[in-house]
Each structure stands twice: as structure tokens, then as C-alpha cells.
Amino acid sequence: xxxxxxxxxxxxxxxxxxxxxxxxxxxxxxxxxxxxxxxxxxxxxxxxxxxxxxxxxxxxxxxxxxxxxxxxxxxxxxxxxxxxxxxxxxxxxxxxxxxxxxxxxxxxxxxxxxxxxxxxxxxxxxxxxxxxxxxxxxxxxxxxxxxxxxxxxxxxxxxxxxxxxxxxxxxxxxxxxxxxxxxxxxxxxxxxxxxxxxxxxxxxxxxxxxxxxxxxxxxxxxxxxxxxxxxxxxxxxxxxxxxxxxxxxxxxxxxxxxxxxxxxxxxxxxxxxxxxxxxxxxxxxxxxxxxxxxxxxxxxxxxxxxxxxxxxxxxx
Length: 316
Ligand SMILES: Nc1ncnc2c1ncn2[C@@H]1O[C@H](COP(=O)(O)OP(=O)(O)OP(=O)(O)O)[C@@H](O)[C@H]1O
Hints:
Blueprint: E1 3-12, E2 15-25, E3 30-34, H1 41-49, E4 56-61, E5 64-65, H2 71-74, E6 76-80, H3 91-101, H4 106-119, H5 135-148, E7 153-157, H6 165-182, E8 185-190, H7 193-199, E9 202-207, E10 210-215, H8 217-222, H9 227-233, E11 237-239, E12 242-244, E13 249-252, E14 258-268, E15 271-278, E16 281-288, H10 289-295, E17 302-307, E18 313-315
Parallel strand pairs: 3-8, 3-9, 6-7, 7-8
Antiparallel strand pairs: 1-2, 1-4, 4-5, 9-10, 11-12, 12-18, 13-17, 14-15, 14-17, 15-16
Helix pairs in contact: 3-4, 3-5, 4-5
Bound molecules: adenosine-5'-triphosphate.
């Protein structure tokens, strides 16, 4: 099911939360809405879901205008950051809930729930209460519950936001694999660029109520449309009149490149961070240890800086 957002605007009082947003989410894709806090990601997701009515513009689901279709008829599944499970119901009853209220036959419900619990790897926890699960297991239960009614679209608002870094990492790998098995058109909100780069097929960068850029992770990382996208997707440093990635700069000792002087060297594991004072800027250069050692870099040394061709850059 494709989703098309056409010229959507949304204000809260005088505050413009979404400003003429247009974006297309392809069928079967895993799309991230990525941006800083308060930029409008959740509002956009809620408009797609039908939880929030846009002031202007339309949402089309599979080519048909859905703006006036009520939430329950849109056939979307949701998972939010702080997922509210039914505390007194077992995991399997929670997953079965949507099917029970739709009065599906008991045998069908049983089979479907078993299939879903297998999919989210919670078979052995079927009879537990939600309180007896870890945070990551609870979010997997939430996904199984959302998938139970076979939604046309799955919308996830920071689904792993409240979890610790290690569990988040496991769950995002798991979400990617789940999506590869199920292929339901999925949109998830995140403010974590690494999460978006790692998991999504396509990323929509949302900032101050506007779409800054849409593209695959590689397109956005390697060809950022502007300074905001460049800085938001990864480290960036000023080199002359250009903004570049610190690991795309090489250090020369043969008199070529923009001249500067090393002010600081920090070794962090495999990586060597070199700060070079160049033309009034402190330029950050990231080298791997072998390259830094081969050059014999030291604080106070005069060097030349060269930006690798055909890598990300934005003129400033
Ligand atoms: N119901 C509301 N009433 C008033 N203002 C709102 C309402 N919902 C959202 N906003 C405002 O709209 C802006 C965008 O909010 P939104 O939740 O969409 O941002 P976000 O990008 O998802 O941020 P976060 O990652 O912090 O959730 C924020 O400044 C927020 O305060």
C-alpha cells in the first residue's frame, strides 16, 4: 500500500507544525521519518494515521484520498514509544485482542497468534503477563499485536526510543529482518540518524515542519541537499569554503593541500582524531590508526589538508 502526502499543513494555534509537506512512501518499503525533536515527525505520522486532521492538503492511501476516512477504517497498525499493553492479559491474549474484537473464529485466532509469536520470537513467553517481559520483548509483543489484524500500513513512533542502546540496536536489526519477511509498508519515526541509516530503505528528513530531503541512506549521506542534512546525518567539519565529512579529509606532508597546523591528536580505539588549525577554522580530521602512524603525526606539525573527490560536500 503506497502512502502519498500532498501539500499537508498543520498548525497548533499560531505554531506551524507542518508546512506544505509532500512526500510519497513506496509500497512495501521501510521508510524513516528522521529529524530533530519538535521538527514535526510525530505530527506527520499522526496525520498519516488519521489521528490528526490536516488543515490543508490530503493523505492518499493506495491512490485514494483518506483524509476523511476515520482511523479505524484506514487499516493501519500503530506502535508508540510507551506502548500500553493490557496488563491483566497474557502475551498471547494481548496479541489476539484485535482479532477477538473482530470476531474471528477461535481456531483462526489460535493459529494466527502462534504464527505471530513465532515471528517476533516470543513463543515461550505466550502465557506471561506484560509486566514479566523485558522492555524489548514488550515492544516485540506490541509489533505482533499491531501486525495481527494484517494492517495495510504499519506506523511506528519511536518504537524503541525508551530502551537502552544495546537493546535498541538488537531490535532495529530485528525490525529490518521482520520487515524483509512481512513486507508491510512501514513508516517509523526516529531522531537517531544511525537508526535511520541502518534500518530504512528510504529516509525523509523532517525539520521545522518541512521536508529537507528524501532519499536512500546512501543518497542522503553522500549527496546531502543542504547544510542541515549534511550535519544531521553524520559528523561534518568546515574545510575552506566547504563543509565536508572529517573522514573524507586526508593529511599531506608533501606541501600540497590547504596549509594548517595540528593543535590536538586524540586516539580513540581504532580511530585517530586530529584537529588542524586552518585559515581560522579548527578542522576535524578522522584517520584510521595505520594512516596516522604511517604519517607520524604530532601536535604542532605543519600539514596540508585535501578533501577526497566525489564524497559528500556542501558549499557554505
Ligand atoms: N496537540 C498539540 N498542541 C500544540 N502543539 C503541538 C501539539 N502536537 C505537537 N505540537 C507541537 O508541534 C511541534 C512538532 O511536534 P512533533 O511531535 O510532531 O515533533 P517531533 O519531530 O515528532 O518531535 P519529537 O521527536 O520530540 O517527538 C512541536 O513543537 C510540538 O510542541
